[in-house]
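Incident log, structure service

09:12 report received: a user says their structure output differs between two submissions of the same chain.
09:20 pulled the input from the user's history:
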Amino acid sequence: MQFSNVYINGTSKFLPNEPIENEEMEEYLGLINELASKSRRIVLRNNGIKQRYYAISKDGKTTHTNSKMTALAVRELFRNNPDGLKSFQLLACGTSSPDQMMPSHAVMVHGELPETNSIEVVSPSGVCCAGMHALKYAYLSIKTGEVETAVSTGSEMISTLLRGEHFEEESKKASQLEANPYISFEKDFLRWMLSDGASAFLLSNKPNENSISLRIEWMDGFSFAHQKQACMYMASDKEKDGTLKSYKEFSNEELIDNSILSIKQDVKLLSENIVQLGGIGVKTVLERHGMKSSEIDYFLPHMSSEFFKDKIYTKLIENGNRIDYDKWFVNLSRVGNVGAASVYLMVDELFHSGKLKKGDKIFLLVPESSRFSYMFAMMTAV
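09:34 re-ran on a clean worker, output below:
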């Protein structure tokens, strides 16, 4: 069987409303028990985020659904060619925050695009890796000849779940945060970290004729769930033995009283594993594909916080995969942590930056702390 090359020929994004600076965040997310957060400044100092975007107004009203933002990002791919909405044959949409459990996220996005044809749609779930899983599905579909063109997306609409009324207790760990920033990865940490937005890629079996394309050389992923417990979880609670108790097993009163629907983080597991396992993954994929880190021109690591930057760099050096900071391309400080959309937003910014030249190698790293999954990709500018 002869496989096709796969190219990213276009990228786009949709970031809702105006950028929100750090001092404005509580105006949108509200207070907990009518008290300002004790940990907000500490969290923001560690994560390095200066602004982010919310699809809500200051009174908590939703301005854009996840599916609407994703559809707007897809439309942006065809801004100069609206008829192109009829050209792609597959829509793969990854997110960790769909607007509803059913129908699936991708079919809701498709529903926002009535100009398109009747096409295949797929909705990878998960957390940060969901967007990469959507990309890989589109990549493999084109590579094997199932389709010639596809659109993949990553998106999040999480801000409504970060509103103060969803949390019963003010963070009580500010003193611990000073001693160990990892402890900030609790409920209150996530309120000052996560944000909204969507991004999309247009993929084809043929490159652009008159402009840069990104040829996807390979994509690999690893899950360590066979060895590790859940670390970040939502709509569940963690039992003493490490298993998760589903929201389905709680009464309506318990769901509210125990904030079961909020996002939680097992801080100890995170600090012990996220960088260590990611380093193993980088070393494994580069060796598998016969590449040296010195061949990489641009390194796009999805980081939930700049707190991890030096730790990732140190681990790369320890593993013999040094990638100097001048090759790193990140935009966390400008767009925030947008989960499944984050790596898309980095690629989109680089793609439109004018910096790429033919032959450049771009390496993507996406960690997911939910149960320690990682996705990697290598691309070449052509």
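09:41 both user submissions now match this output. Likely a transient worker issue. Closing.
09:42 reviewer note: The CA atoms of residues 44 and 192 lie 7 Å apart. The longest helix spans residues 267-288.
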